[in-house]
DNA sequence: TCGCAAATCGGCCAAATCGTTCATTCTGGA
DNA sequence: TCCAGAATGAACGATTTGGCCGATTTGCGA
């Protein structure tokens, strides 16, 4: 997360929230607002603490300006439906120009206005990378801009990943990645983020991992779920054969989720898999379902 | 080895703690922060003293970057680093097994015991990745372990990068990356980290970037320094020709630093470049030198 | 080694914040 | 409708904080 963490005094919060200073102090003392103290005993509230408070109480800053914060309600998802495009294009442009701080800010604003980390990341990043890819094939962008954009996006995803609450060690394990010949890191990183957010102990093996190595990893980690993110296929025939062998060995008990833009209508029918996901949203729903099913199975056994 | 502990001034602590310099001075005088004095009476706080203060008051650095410390609580400081070798092998093993938290802890202990972020990262990570590479070619490790290790290491480097103080917008610009056919992201990320730490506005273009795209980037960004990190070469003849053409176009005013394990004695003599760096340490020294030279040039012009 | 710019010193003061108390307003039930 | 309990907002002296100042020290380059 951002290295600089601003802090606010009760008076500032009071003005931003349009309540009295006394109330803010009481809320701090009651524990509703996470508060730290200076050595002399003055209350200080970090930005994280403020966000936590706002989220838990469903409150909004009626006057964010005094804290130097952007007006979140204007970005609210339901309030400005038509602004999606403008936000997306702003993000895409910033990513192409290597303006990492701007990208991070847009993503953060998206999240503070009610999107989940996964939703915001998927929408903004996949859209932007598609757009950059298109522009690149049209010679409007240079290769280095595409590469740099990938690096920045990966950093953002990793930051979101780090900001998630710690994983429950008892949670079911999921592993996955991108197969050999697939150089894309972002999709599998997004899948990992999504699964972690819905409570899986998800671990991405990375990109360009041969399916034999998936098999070894499955043996080592004993997962309850395996995903395969496929953005690029070098040899379709070999790919289909290897995936099917892998699926065969996985057996019935471990579901195999596949997805990715390389799995088009010519490839997909030839593959053995448990489910195909068109989007991360789809994946999340499936994963949540499987998690609760696992829980039931354990409870009944 | 870093023998003497780093020391911080009240002003630095103030920024890291998000309080005023006056308050830090008062806290020092009150005895809350263990303080030593220079002969002339200036206050200095050692890293140990800082730890003691943070632990006793249950406090965290809200802005650790300005002290060159990683962005994590210093409370969990178990000071049992052991010998260099044992630390290295522990890190290597944790990386191979995907134990990200352990890796992060070892790296941070290294930094809080006086190493700079760059030094610690280079020593631990390059050593570990070499070791993992060796074990992999010997069939002791699986491919997925190597890929996962790279991903984790890259995350760690990016976390250190994020914990650095914000870049001075007036600082000289440096760009660089790994050329086409080179799939390694870590080396160029480490170089970027190192340059940022010594005050450059460094931006990595990523891996697998064609030299033509380097040229475009040079045109777009107008850097004062360009680096080329080469860990793998597909076609040596083409590579040499392209690097030399690139160096030619760069001209005299923009130094080209090259490095990486692929530049062996058969390749290097054929290349045009300003300097070759055997290690990141070497690179840091050179970059610091060039930065001060730039400063002088600007001052005299 | 010397000189100079930047950092730090100690002290001072206005403004902010502390904890507390009390009057007022809001809320839900008899 | 009335009342008791809870939350809010305002006011108080005591304490802390943050910025300012001229004098001194430090660190770096010539």
By oligomeric state, this entry counts as homodimer
What is the overall number of helices of chain A? 11
- Give the largest interface pair and sizes: A-B, 42 and 46 residues
Please state how the strands of the largest beta sheet of chain A are arranged side by side.
5-4-6-7-8
Task: Please state the CA-atom Rg of chain A, rounded to the nearest Å.
Answer: 22 Å
Q: What series of H and E elements makes up the topology of chain A?
A: EHHEEHHHHHEHEHEHEEH
Q: What percent of the residues of chain A sit in helical stretches (DSSP H or I)?
A: 40-55%
Separation of the first and last Cα atoms of chain A: 42 Å
- Report the structural category of chain A: alpha/beta
**Overall pLDDT confidence of chain A:** 87
Largest sheet of chain A: 5 strands, parallel
Q: Using DSSP, what is the number of strands of chain A?
A: 8
- Strand % of chain A is 5-15%
Bulk shape of chain A: globular
Question: Would you identify the regions of chain A where 5 or more consecutive residues have pLDDT less than 50?
Answer: 73-82
């Amino acid at each position: 997360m951002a290295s600089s963490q601003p802090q606010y005094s009760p008076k500032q919060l009071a003005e931003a929230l349009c309540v009295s200073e006394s109330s803010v102090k009481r809320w701090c003392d009651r524990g509703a607002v996470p508060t730290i103290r200076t050595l002399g005993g003055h209350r200080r509230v970090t930005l994280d603490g403020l966000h936590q408070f706002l989220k838990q109480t469903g409150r909004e800053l009626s006057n964010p300006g005094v804290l130097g914060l952007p007006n979140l309600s204007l970005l609210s998802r339901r309030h400005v439906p038509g602004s999606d495009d403008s936000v997306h294009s702003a993000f895409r442009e910033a990513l192409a120009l290597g303006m990492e701080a701007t990208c991070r800010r847009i993503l953060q604003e998206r999240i503070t206005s009610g999107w989940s980390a996964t939703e915001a990341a998927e929408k903004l990043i996949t859209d932007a990378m598609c757009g950059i890819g298109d522009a690149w094939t049209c010679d409007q962008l240079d290769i280095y801009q595409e590469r740099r954009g990938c690096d920045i996006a990966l950093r953002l995803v990793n930051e979101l990943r780090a900001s998630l609450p710690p994983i429950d060690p008892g949670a079911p394990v999921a592993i996955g990645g991108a197969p050999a010949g697939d150089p894309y890191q972002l999709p599998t990183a997004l899948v990992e983020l999504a699964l972690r957010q819905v409570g899986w102990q998800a671990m991405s093996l990375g990109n360009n991992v041969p399916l034999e190595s998936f098999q070894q990893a499955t043996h080592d980690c004993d997962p309850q779920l395996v995903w395969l993110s496929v953005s690029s296929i070098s040899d379709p025939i070999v790919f289909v054969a290897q995936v099917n062998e892998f699926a065969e060995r996985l057996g019935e008990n471990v579901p195999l989720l596949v997805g990715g833009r390389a799995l088009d209508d010519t490839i997909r029918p030839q593959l053995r898999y448990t489910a195909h996901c068109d989007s991360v949203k789809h994946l999340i729903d499936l994963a949540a379902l499987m998690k609760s099913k696992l829980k039931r199975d354990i409870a009944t056994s």
